[in-house]
Amino acid sequence: MRVIDYSLNGDAIRINVVETEKDLPEFRRFVEVNRRALGFDTETDGLSWWEDGFRIRLAQFGNAHESYVLPVEKGGLFQEDAIKAVGWVQKLVMQNGTYDILCMDRVWGVKAETVFPRLLDSRIVAHLVDSRGRKDGGIGHSLEELTRHYLSAVVADEVKSSMTAIAKELKVKKAEVWPVVPLEHEGFNLYAGMDPVLAFRLARKLKPLIPASARKLLDYEHQLAAACAYMVRKGIKADVPYIQARANELARTEVHFKDVAAKLGLENINSPKQVGDAIISRGIRPTDTTPTGQPKVDDQLLKAHLSDPLCEAIYQGKKAAKAKSTWFDNALANRDSEDRLHAAINSTGARTARMSISGAIPAQTFPSKDSLVRRGFIADPGYVVCAVDYKAQELRVLAALSGDMAMKRAFREGADLHQITADSAGVDRSTGKMAGFLTVYGGGWAALASQAGVSEETARRAIDGFFEAFPRVREYSEELQKEARRNGYITTNTGRRLLVDKRRPYAALNYAVQSASRDVTGRAILRLQKAGYGPYCLLPVHDEVIFQFPEEHALKATTKAAQIMKETMNGVLIDTDVSVYGKSWGCGYMAAGQYCDLCDTIHKESE
User: In the 8-state DSSP scheme, what is residue 179?
Assistant: First the structure.
């Protein structure tokens, strides 16, 4: 047994590096003594846990003062003892445990369902303490960020940043160090051995800091993380020929517009300096600059001058390249051996806890009302893709939270909420609709004027008209702002504490509605799991859940799922819509009259 001694704020930390099978009895005794709770982590050869040949290299168990590092990549008793220990420990404290649990499920065959009920995730705990990421002015939720703030900046620098130094030592990029660093490397074992210690200490320190109103959310958030992980593990089938064809088309489009730009004197459409110089030479003067001082030529400027052939070539060429890389190349590079794609679902992705989806399926970036990307995601043989989405979820939640009688009555009677706003303001329905949604999203008259293309006077009138039609909404917003100014935070209807920037108290309404809406969807996902619909769930996207059901039962099953997802909040029905798309996700987004080769049918006008 090799021992690495370390110090954390004066506390001695002992890291036991297991080297031979003769060291394992001591490890077993450690696990037995600490069986009630241990920190746990793994080190792998990368992040693509779905790939054949993916390796778990080290497994680490630890408490606040001591850890053991097992070289499980060697297999044999090292791996067997790690698997047994995972099963023995009653509470596994992990940082971002979903990843490690999926790794164990894939590589060791340890079913995620046996581990999630025993998980305490320090990342989830930290989010309930302060939901803000670094970009929002918060501490952040990564292990390094949390260690730096709550435990030790020295440890964050020396240990959590050490893999960069190890990569430099081994003369590889940091992203390439994980599969090649020797198992016996001292720095690697220090890094690995500290992870379970840090997660254990963070959870112990942070758990008492969860506001009393939010403590009931701890189990809920862990259950929701598990439900999302099961969707991730299942994945979605990719139509590889379709995806490859679209990637090839976009590559040709990019080359075409690069050639057009070259003929117009621009050699590289991706060079800010060259693009800036070329645009200025054509009499178009950007009003802003990049951080390096170059003229800023963004999509907004290019779209405003698409009548200029060079602007069009730059815009279309870059747009094609980005679409190819983000959606199609990404999918082709990250599919598993069965051509399935596994999204990365962060169940607490935003400061409001709204979920985010990235990785192989960056669904929240897909063009709205467009089948181009979604057509590449298909149902398994014998199944069809279906969806249940909430009808005006955030406006219904706003009605429930504010208690506005006119808004509640409108939903109860099926009245046109947007026309009510339009009539109140003396504007068209489209502007009235946008005024309502912008109010929920935290926008004001300036945003409305810009997005709706109306005058300042019309935009102001539309916003005022919304509040006149639904006066309790204004009062509720003002109450939230007062709470935010007084406390620095608001408490949502579920007890979640959301910190609000002092200079942006008006954002409190958006935070309250967005967070409550997310929890409507979250609760629905758990009800679906409990009702046995989990194996059919593919993805939660915004205010909808994507399913695949057997074709012969699709409408009945989707209708039942929609009933399960409905919820009544303060007398307001958070209602749902049912959609049976077809053999691909994109079937639900095809224009009327558009032919689908996969379904061999002409699609009708979607509702």
Answer: T
Spell 99-118 as b/e; 16+ CB within 10 A means b. bbbbbbbbbbebebeebbeb
- Identical topology for domains 2-210 and 394-515: no
CATH architecture of the domain 394-515 equals: Orthogonal Bundle (1.10)
Buried b or exposed e, range 257-269, using 16+ CB within 10 angstroms? bbebbeeeebeeb
Neighbouring CB atoms inside 10 A of 340's CB total: 16
Scanning 160-234, the segments in alpha helix (DSSP H) are: 162-170, 186-206, 217-234
> What is the CATH T-level fold of the domain 341-392+517-602, as seen in this structure?
Alpha-Beta Plaits (3.30.70)
Percent of the chain with pLDDT over 70: 99
Q: State residue 245's pLDDT score.
A: 97
- Distance between CA atoms of 19 and 505, rounded to whole angstroms? 56
The three-class DSSP label of residue 418 is helix
Residues of the chain with pLDDT under 70: 604-607
Phi first, then psi: give them for residue 120, nearest 5 degrees: -120, 110
Residue range 238-338 forms a domain whose CATH class is mainly alpha
**Assigned CATH class of 2-210:** alpha beta
Residue among 297, 279, 278 nearest 288 (CA): 297
How far apart CA 436 and CA 442 sit, in angstroms, is 10
Q: Tell me how far apart the alpha carbons of residues 201 and 301 are, in angstroms, rounded to a whole number.
A: 50
What is the per-residue burial (b if ≥16 Cβ within 10 Å, else e) of 166-199?
Answer: bbeeeeeeeeebbeebebeeebbbbbbbbbbbbb
Residue 47 DSSP code: S
Of residues 34, 38, 110, the one with CA closest to residue 72: 110
Tell me the C-alpha distance between 458 and 91, whole Å. Answer: 58
Provide the pLDDT for residue 606.
43
- Contact call for residues 344 and 357 (beta carbons, < 8 A): yes
Q: Comparing C-alpha atoms, which of 522, 555, 576, 494 is closest to residue 226?
A: 522
User: Which pLDDT tens digit goes with each residue over 48-107?
Assistant: 999 999 999 999 999 999 999 999 999 999 999 999 999 999 999 999 999 999 999 999
Q: What is the pLDDT of residue 108?
A: 98
Rounded Cα distance between 178 and 55, Å, is 10
Q: Domain coordinates of the chain in residue numbers?
A: 2-210, 238-338, 341-392+517-602, 394-515
Give the residues across from 544 on adjacent strands.
389, 541
pLDDT at 605: 53
Long-range contacts at 244-249 (CB < 8 A, ≥ 24 apart): 244/328, 244/332, 246/324, 246/328, 246/372, 246/376, 247/324, 247/328, 247/329, 247/332
Retrieve residue 385's tokens: 């893709």
Beta pairing class for 497-499 and 356-359: unpaired
Dihedral over Cα of 63, 68, 71, 76: its sign: negative
- pTM tops 0.85: yes
Quote the pLDDT of residue 599: 80
Residues in contact with 199: Cβ distance below 8 Å, sequence separation at least 6, in sequence order: 39, 40, 41, 93, 94, 95, 122, 143
